[in-house]
Amino acid sequence: MFKFLKGVVGGSGTGPKDLPYNIGEPYPSAWGSWTHHRGTSKEDGSSVSIFSLSGSSSQDGHLAAGRNGVKRLRTVRHPNILSFLHSTEAEISDGSTMKHTIYIVTEPVMPLSEKIKELNLTGTQRDEYFAWGLHQISKAVSFLNNDCKLVHGNVCLASVVVTPTLDWKLHAFDVLSEFDGNNEASNSAMLQYEWLIGSQYKSMELVKSDWGSIRKSPPWAIDSWGLGCLIYELFSGMKLSKTEELRNTSFIPKSLLPDYQRLLSSTPSRRLNPLKLIDNSEYFHNKLVETIQFMEILNLKDSVEKDSFFRKLPNLAEQLPRQIVLKKLLPLLSSSLEFGSAAAPALTALLKMGSWLSTEEFNIKVLPTIVKLFASNDRAIRVALLQHIDQFGESLSSQIVDEQVFPHVANGFADTSAFLRELTLKSMLVLAPKLSQRTISGSLLKYLSKLQVDEEPAIRTNTTILLGNIASYLNEATRKRVLINAFTVRALRDTFSPARAAGIMALSATISYYDMTEISTRILPNIVVLTSDPDGDVRTKAFQAIDQFLLIAKQHHEKLITGDTNETAGAGVPSIAGNASLLGWAMSSLTLKGKASEHGSLASANATTTPDLTTSNPSSGGYADTASSAVNISDQPRPSSPTSTDGGWGEADSGLLQEDHDSDKEGWDDIEPLEEQKPPSLSSIQAAQQRPVVHQKSQNTSFSQPKTATRTSKASDEDDLWGPVAVPASRTVPHIVNVQPAAPKEDDGLWGSIAVAPPKTTSRPLKTKASAALDDSDPWAAIAAPPPTTKAKPLSLGRGRGTKPASARLGAQRIDRSSPGS
User: Fold this and answer.
1) 777-782: long-range contacts at Cβ-Cβ below 8 A with a sequence spacing of 24 or more?
2) Per-residue confidence (pLDDT) for residue 306, from 0 to 100
């Protein structure tokens, strides 16, 4: 018999050296003669609990009861019963004697008495936590009594342990036995090891060893008494020393008192069934118990119940014990989100609970779940993640953002919902600093190029603002290729006035990245045009920017005079005051002006603080102080490029990015700057206005004027100072309209030198053959349309337009073979 029990208890080894766990420090208290140790796994270092029981010989009664406990714990499984992992029995040398020791390895737990001291809960929070714990132990006892027909025999404070998630679990199965209710006439002991139970925990019939009465009683009679002892020890804070102390009910909550008295009834048959204690007692109906119960059966709830529950959870969590929320509710919430049973509003509660954790705990308990959620196809989850990205974005590592987060977030750039596109755009303020140069140049800039021509004007404005914010993270070559085209060719010519204003501010915020040539030839000419903009705010910002860039030009001029050729055009120049206010407005413009059906309650996300385009001092007083600054701005060093060989940009420049540059070029390189076109001379225009116009009829209703007809020599382009600010060329094919010229006015000829350039067409230029020299006396010859490339077909003789060729005859024809000399 002993060999059989030893085989059941025994593990893989014959001693503690072969135990695959490390035995740590013991806890101050444990049930019976057992010692409760902390422990860790030798394989992965995970925490465990190790219980040990020693005896002088293998026939020791305590060891026999211990073997019974090991067998029962191994075979009985329930969520509220301690989980068994491993066991072994070995002979340990203790000096001159040998001791037989049983080891049980379980999930990591802590004695309930120690955990209560550690939590130190008081008042309502203590009662709520005790209610949850008693609820769990009552379920375990009910399972043993009602479902398994087993009797635990010694339910008390020492037989309860607590997991890291603050769940209560029942253990100490040494006395546990089957309920022998069928043999009522037998007077033999039903509980073989009842002598291990302390006399203060024994019910009246157990003290008298009235086994006949016990067998006639319900299976829960003994353990219901034990539950009453547990309740007394919990609320009194003292260990029960004698049975008479149970009559002191001053510590028991009033809502629990009737059930407490029924548990301790002197008549075993009238004692309360633990199952009814759970269902009927008012004490167990509180916020904590109901919240945890809802979370545990979340899969059984419908979408309406889930949505309502998770919207209330953030406020409810503040009223619950903080330790229980973090150690119990937070893991439940994370797993429910990860496996798809929770609704999108649960993310708000998760982040709120996560804010109560330390940075290290947040990265371990919350961040992995959030990263997995980015792969979700649920649009509501994606929106919630983007709305709260500022709360956890800083905790994401660059590798995780680049490899796991951005590929999923980037799908939002092309989403059909304008609101989701805007949220995706705003999220780049947090994510872009963590992206590699390859991802920024190869993916992000292409998405932003498309968003700059988005149908929503607010998204176009926000894209310009974002480019100004992330300019410092771009490679120097990429900045040269993208920024000016994005800000001038697109933003400054946008039909939405805030987009034009954003373009001006973005140029000012990124002034340090432009050299003097770019400022004078590509930036200033485009900004000057906006000084006559219909929008007052755009005009104001245009004048401020002009002052700022002219200050740079003056400083450059002074440096050239003094012989200093070091071009640090915009180094250290403060940007326009008020950039931050426009940034905040633009970020919320889509929510305020967009479609209400797409936004709904999500508009509150726009109230979050976003980074500004610049770091200028608000107290600088605008450009007045900038212009009068005594500090030579050009002397300040230009910020270094963030390019690093570690990011793989050098390889990308010569390989992948070069290929992208040739094909896509982020969408901005296909935007050519305005062509410098020399208008017809003043004398030619005046002469042309005094001559009648002869309109030639043509078979085509429209034609495309080739570029070669309007281009002039390079020397002429350099002399034309107004070329850079010419009206942008039209990309549509113009239609010829026969309009008689108005009578020439005396002042009309004065505007000829800055006349609007002919429209630039997208059609292929006509291939013209070399023609005769132009007539110098004809002022329109220089701008006349090129001759047609195909010959006109002869017209009919009846209309006098030419000779009609003889039509070919069918059939055989007579051939005149007579010689000319005959």
Assistant:
1) 779/680, 779/683, 779/684, 779/685, 779/687, 779/688, 779/691, 780/684, 780/688, 780/691, 782/680, 782/684
2) 92
Rounded Cα distance between 781 and 771, Å, is: 12
Sign of the CA dihedral with 333 first, then 334, 340, and 343 last: positive
Residue 444 pLDDT: 95
Task: Read off the tokens for 725.
Answer: 């600010």
pLDDT at 704: 39
Q: What's phi and psi for 37, nearest 5 deg? A: -110, 150
pLDDT at 188: 59
Q: What is the pLDDT of residue 191?
A: 83
pLDDT value at residue 98: 81
pLDDT of res. 391: 92
CA-nearest of 448, 557, 569 to 513 is 569
Instruction: Give long-range contacts, CB 8 A cutoff, 24+ apart: 277-282.
Output: 277/138, 277/227, 278/135, 278/138, 278/139, 278/142, 281/255, 281/256, 282/255
Whole-angstrom Cα distance, residue 85 to residue 436?
A: 46
Q: Which residues contact 60 (CB under 8 A, 6 or more apart)?
A: 100
3-state DSSP assignment of residue 28? coil
Exposure of 715 by Cβ count < 10 A (0-12 exposed, 13-18 middle, 19+ buried)?
A: exposed
Task: Give pLDDT, residue 647.
Answer: 33
Which pair of structure tokens corresponds to residue 691? Answer: 């001559």
CB under 8 Å to 124, separation ≥6 — which residues?
A: none
Our measurement of the distance from residue 419's CA atom to the centroid of its chain's CA atoms, rounded to an integer in Å, reads 15
CA–CA gap between residue 713 and residue 547 (Å, rounded):
33
Residues of the chain with pLDDT under 70: 1-15, 181-189, 564-822
The pLDDT, as a whole number, for residue 211 is 86
Q: Are 590 and 630 in contact (CB under 8 A)?
A: no
Report the distance separating Cα 689 and Cα 63, nearest Å.
121
Q: Which amino acid does the sequence have at 742? A: A
* Residue 189, amino acid: A
CA-nearest of 192, 166, 432, 206 to 324 is 166
